[in-house]
DNA sequence: AACACGGGGGC
DNA sequence: GCCCCAGTGTT
């Protein structure tokens, strides 16, 4: 039978991961949030740093948002970090540090959707609820030869029902982890290991040699192109201007150098004409384009072309906006910045 | 129902 | 260059 085979496979092949040792709600929750749309290999070092820094949900709740975002820097999908922090405060203050102990109440937490609520409820509290993540979609669509697109409304319903039917009710937490681990390590998107598969004899995709065509997924979204011109101000004392991204957009609440977004990347003449204020022109010493060709930075829905302009001035403006800060060059590392910015900063220092 | 939201890695 | 990753929230 399927569930039993998957559980046996898991026993022999599972990775040794820190949150699996002794399932506790705080650690399982933390790991599940971090692993949303994120590979274990990428999330693991972040998990270890968070646990080290915030051993309990109270420690996380009491930290500043700045610190949480700084530790999250580079992991992407930053709303996860903000929701994580909000939820930590709710659990710490309103619930006395105790997480809800069932699917229905877990799902009410910010950043906890169907998948994460199912994962915590089953792994920590042994509630028989099935997880459906990218791995489960792949394993089940292949095993049963289901061609319904996994990102259609019908597909979401169908696969949740199928996953629920296959759930090993006596050990839902172990089974959920087992089918995900099996999908991640064995029934992989590319080059699945069908030859050594424990359930190959009942797998439709294997029988019909179509594992490569499953799961079916609806189209791909279009990517928007954007053109960023960063102004890297620096005065004679090595002080720089930094501003927080507050608008509802990518990288919300992260820091950046003052940015001019335009329909195309600006030329030096255009920068001088439109980007610099009169009082900035008066104290301007030099302005140099740092990268000859725009840097391409690709996000899931956007392609960004970035140019960094190094602007040396005698002094920084004194009346700055409340989203801006004047910082020393050495202090830059304290701020959470997009990876695009981090790469620029590192190359300047190294 | 469709879209926005990051960054890294495999092939 | 394209696809995928222990998905969620908003419109």
UniProtKB/TrEMBL annotation:
Keyword flag DNA repair: yes
Cofactor: [4Fe-4S] cluster
HhH-GPD domain boundaries: 34-185
Alphabetic keyword roster: 4Fe-4S, DNA damage, DNA repair, Glycosidase, Hydrolase, Iron, Iron-sulfur, Metal-binding
Database matches in InterPro entries: A/G_AdeGlyc_MutY, DNA_glycosylase, HhH-GPD_domain, HhH_base_excis_C, HhH_motif, MIG/MutY, MutY_C, NUDIX_hydrolase-like_dom_sf
One annotated GO molecular function: adenine/guanine mispair binding
EC numbers on record: 3.2.2.31
Annotated Gene3D superfamilies: Helix-hairpin-Helix base-excision DNA repair enzymes (C-terminal), Hypothetical protein, domain 2, Nucleoside Triphosphate Pyrophosphohydrolase
Cofactor notes: Binds 1 [4Fe-4S] cluster.
Family membership noted in the UniProt record: Belongs to the Nth/MutY family.
Name listed for the protein in its UniProt record: Adenine DNA glycosylase
């Amino acid at each position: 039978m399927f569930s039993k085979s998957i559980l046996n496979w898991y026993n022999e092949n599972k990775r040794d991961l820190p949150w699996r040792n002794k399932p506790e709600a705080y650690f399982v929750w933390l790991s599940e949030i971090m692993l949303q749309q994120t590979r274990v290999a990428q999330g693991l070092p972040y998990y270890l740093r968070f646990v080290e820094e915030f051993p309990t949900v109270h420690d996380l709740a009491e930290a500043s948002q700045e610190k949480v975002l700084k530790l999250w820097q580079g992991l992407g999908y930053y709303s996860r970090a903000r929701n994580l922090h909000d939820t930590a405060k709710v659990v710490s203050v309103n619930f006395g540090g105790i997480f809800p102990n069932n699917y229905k109440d877990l799902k009410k937490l910010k950043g906890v959707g169907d998948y994460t609520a199912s994962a915590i409820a089953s792994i920590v509290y042994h509630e028989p609820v099935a997880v459906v993540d990218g791995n489960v979609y792949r394993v089940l669509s292949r095993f049963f030869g289901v061609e319904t697109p996994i990102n259609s409304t019908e597909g979401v319903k169908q696969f949740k029902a199928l996953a629920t039917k296959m759930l090993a009710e006596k050990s839902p937490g172990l089974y959920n982890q087992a089918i995900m681990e099996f999908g991640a390590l064995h029934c992989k998107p590319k080059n699945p290991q069908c030859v050594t598969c424990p359930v190959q004899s009942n797998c439709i995709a294997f029988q019909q040699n179509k594992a490569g065509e499953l799961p079916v997924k609806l189209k791909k979204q279009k990517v928007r192109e954007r053109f960023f011109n960063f102004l890297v101000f620096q005065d004679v004392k090595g002080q720089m201007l930094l501003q927080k991204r507050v608008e509802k957009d990518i990288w919300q609440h992260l820091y950046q150098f003052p940015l001019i977004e335009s329909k195309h990347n600006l030329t030096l003449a255009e920068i001088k004409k439109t980007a610099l204020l009169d009082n900035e022109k008066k104290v301007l010493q030099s302005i140099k384009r740092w990268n000859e060709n725009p840097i391409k930075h690709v996000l899931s829905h956007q392609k960004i072309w970035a140019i960094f302009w190094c602007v040396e001035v005698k002094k920084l403006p004194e009346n700055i906006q409340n989203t801006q800060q004047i910082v020393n060059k050495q202090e830059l590392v304290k701020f959470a910045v997009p990876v695009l910015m981090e790469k620029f900063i590192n190359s300047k220092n190294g």
